[in-house]
Design goal:
With 171 residues, the chain is an alpha+beta fold. The chain is built from four helices and eight strands.
């Protein structure tokens, strides 16, 4: 029978803290490492496959939301993750955003991803860094999904002003 992630994490925690007061720190660490490896064997393969399948389901919606995937990372570990790197190609209007969210309301993860992207897009317009501009988004799909906004240094042109490109448009 497969163990659930909370049970695996609790077993690791107990082994790291040391169930037996006579055990040395290195014995506890070795025990925790063994528990981690066993937990990964039980948990990560199945979870990683499911995460990849969910990303494949979300990809067409991400593209319809105005983003392109420029790179894809896969992180292996206790909490495996798929990390697509996204670039904003085009801004879609609020009506199109609402329509996508309504269309995906029964696809919980897809809907969460889209909502996160739309919130991140709104947040990026409020973030103003001297000499840096918004460039990309990383979307970490794991047990605790995370959206990372990336900013790059502005490029100075001949007039000394900076140019920023979103899609095909310089602003």
């Amino acid at each position: 029978m497969k163990r659930r992630l909370p049970d695996i994490l609790e077993d690791m925690r107990q082994k790291l803290l040391g169930r037996e007061s006579t055990a040395t720190w290195s014995e506890n660490a070795s025990s925790a490492y063994s528990a981690t490896v066993e937990g990964l064997k039980e948990f990560s393969g199945d979870t990683l496959g499911k995460t990849a399948a969910r990303f494949n389901e979300a990809l067409p919606y991400i593209e319809r939301a105005g983003y392109e995937v420029t790179e894809l990372e896969v992180g292996l570990g206790l909490s495996p993750k798929v990390v697509p790197h996204l670039r904003l190609k085009e801004l879609i209007d609020d009506e199109a955003k609402l329509a996508l969210l309504e269309e995906t309301k029964d696809k919980r993860l897809v809907n969460t991803i889209l909502g996160s992207l739309f919130r991140a897009s709104a947040a990026r317009s409020k973030l103003n860094f001297n000499r840096f501009h918004f460039s990309d988004i990383e979307l970490e799909l794991s047990i605790l999904p995370t959206v990372i906004l990336k900013f790059k240094p502005n490029e100075a042109n001949e007039t000394g002003t900076t140019a920023v490109t979103v899609g095909d448009e310089k602003i």
